[in-house]
Amino acid sequence: NGFFSTFINPFEIYINRTRASDSTLIHELLHLLTHETFDRNTSTRLNEGVTEYFTRKVQGAIDPNNNNLLGFLQPRQSYPNELNSVNATRNMIKNVVNPMLPTIRSQ
Fold this sequence. Notes:
Layout: E1 2-5, E2 12-15, H1 22-33, H2 36-41, H3 44-62, H4 80-106
Antiparallel strand pairs: 1-2
Helix pairs in contact: 1-3, 3-4
C-alpha cells in the first residue's frame, strides 16, 4: 500500500492511491520521522511493529472512540504479528520491570 525510501535523497514516501488507506499515510510518515539510528539498528519486524504501534496511537488520538468521525480512518489490520511482539514487550516492561525498579534502585 505504501513504503518509505531512504535510498532517495531527500527521503520519499510512496503511496498506492488505489489501495492505501489514510492510516497508511500516517504509518509511512512515522517511518519518515524515525531516527536513522533506530532504522538502521533494528530488524524489519521490530521497526514495523513499533511503527504500527505508534500509527495506532496516533489514529486513536485522532478518533479515540473509533467512531470514524472524520470519515477517513479505517481500523488497521496491518502487521499483526509485529504489533503483538511490541505490545508483549511493552506489557512485560510495564508489569514486570517497572514494579522492580524501586528495589533495583535501592540496592
